[in-house]
Amino acid sequence: HYLFALEHDLKTLDFGAAYGLASIRRYDDPADPDLARFKMLLDRADLSQAARASVLFALGKVNDDLGDYARAASFLREANGLVGHQGWSRRNWRRMVESRLTGTSLPQRTPASTECIPVFVVGAPRSGTTLVAELLGRSPEVRNRGELDWLPHYAEEVACSARPDPALLGKIVDTYMARLQQGEAGARWFVDKQPLNFLHVDLIRALFPQAHIVYCRRSHRDTALSIWSQHFESAEYRFAYDFGDIAAVLKGCERLMAKARRDSHLIEVRYEELARNPQAAVGKLAAALGLAPFDVGVPNAVRSVIGTASVWQARQPVYTRAIGRWRGYAEHVPELLRFADD
């Protein structure tokens, strides 16, 4: 479909068709026709800024796959410069994090014993959230609903209420549950994977005391590089094109999750441990959630949909080559050395 779009209407470049094509597979041949296609597109003088950025991100992805990190870094640096971070404020982000840390606690509702168990997978973008959700969804007891954007809207509704009360929270829960369980009323565990939901841990706990929160963590240098390498569509990710902004988001995530660690329903998953031994890591997670043991190598018969930048990684066997990936870029992207290699 991407090839058809690029061959029949170059306007699709403005909507990320080039990067979309590069994102759905891994390249291992320097003579791959996609590489020549992207280079030809880049030579066009009639590309808009958005189209050129999409092609540059695509070339960065291809050259990263081929191990040419110097060339990949060059393409990615130009691409990030074209997109920019207009509409995202580091100061406003820090204020929002501070307000979450010092805000008044919400009243907590009492769930019915028959309610399903939402599992919120959160963490910095590119920290392994999609992989955790995909592997967890291979349990026959779990339904992976993918990256839902519902909670931020409910958070805004609560914030606009002069005095949030149990009635308002109950209304939100009814709406959320009806959407979450649509067509799967008999299932018990449902995964809601939205990385930035770490901003709404207090709301999650007020709405769903029975819910589990899975916090994904990864080396900051690898996380920062992976964020900077992606061409995100959502305005929420405007921080992704500047390392100072990325650092602010990672710091904010750490501060909020440090507070959330007081919750007994919080479970941490390290990306590095997951990649090296997915069966052991997911087995430990499943036990904490109350799931029966299952084989993570066998996909669930109910296939989940992945609509994020992690689609090609999550659809192939789990690999470890992304651990320490920043080292190949250290010479070309020295900004990475400002991040802690935790």
Question: Could you walk me through the main structural features you see in this protein, from its secondary elements to its overall organization?
Answer:
This protein has 342 residues and is α/β, with parallel strands linked by helices. 46% of the residues lie in helices and 8% in strands. The protein is built from 15 helices and 5 strands. It has helices at residues 2-8, 17-23, 33-42, 49-65, 69-83, 90-102, 129-136, 150-159, 166-180, 201-207, 220-228, 243-260, 271-276, 278-289, 311-315, and strands at 117-123, 142-144, 189-193, 212-217, 266-270. Strands 2-3-1-4-5 form a 5-stranded parallel β-sheet, sandwiched between helices. The longest helix has 18 residues, at 243-260.
Overall average pLDDT: 91
Number of helices: 15
Main sheet specs: 5 strands, parallel
What's the Cα radius of gyration? 21 Å
Q: Which ranges are low-confidence, i.e. pLDDT below 50, for 5 or more consecutive residues?
A: none
Distance between the termini: 40 Å
Lateral strand order in the biggest sheet:
2-3-1-4-5
Tally of DSSP β-strands: 5
Find the structural class using helix and strand composition: alpha/beta
Please state the oligomeric state of the protein chains shown.
single chain
* Shape verdict: globular
